Amino acid sequence: MEPRFDLMTNELGAKIAKRIYHVALAILQSPLPRDTQNLVMLRASQINGCGFCVDYHAKDATAAGEDATRLNLVAAWRESTVFTDAERAALALTEEGTRIADAHAGVSDDTWERAREHYDDDQIAALVSLIALINANNRLNVMVRNPGGSYQPGQFAALAN
């Protein structure tokens, strides 16, 4: 599969990517646990069918020390015992936030309340921002057909400058 367009070799695309990366850095540096961030990004990317992002976030999570069993069970988190109640609340919010067009009510009050039981104001700000950002990234990569398989952990570190 060949990409339709390489955003990183386009001047405007690279400028936008750098700004998106800086938003991601702000979330990464937030008090939302890194393991939760990785699970959220992986799950949204699975739902959206973004091969590049599934590859990216699975490899970054592995590099950060995430357990392979947990990564393999993210798509079946409801039927798994390896996630904390807080992670389960974040994954539920991720799924409803990602599938927002599929439900006329958007995110349910029950899902929101479960997330608020586990996350303070700064963490919830990071979590909802992360869900929105990963969905935007998924859509960018799916539209240009950026394929999965070649990502190397840390390859975008230069964007931080």
Mean pLDDT: 95
How many DSSP E strands?
0
- Beta strand %: under 5%
Task: State the helix count.
Answer: 7
CATH class reads Mainly Alpha
Spatial extent as radius of gyration: 15 Å
Give the CA-CA distance, first to last residue. Answer: 31 Å
Tertiary shape: globular
The helix-and-strand class reads: mainly alpha
Domain Carboxymuconolactone decarboxylase-like: 18-96
Protein name: Carboxymuconolactone decarboxylase family protein
GO molecular function, one term: peroxiredoxin activity
Organism: Streptomyces hainanensis
Explain how this protein is built:
The protein is an all-alpha fold and 161 residues long. The chain has a single domain (32-151), classed as AhpD-like, CATH 1.20.1290.10. The chain has helices at 11-28, 34-48, 51-63, 68-73, 85-98, 109-118, 121-143. The longest helix is centred in the last third of the chain and has 23 residues, at 121-143. The chain is globular. The relative contact order is 0.20.
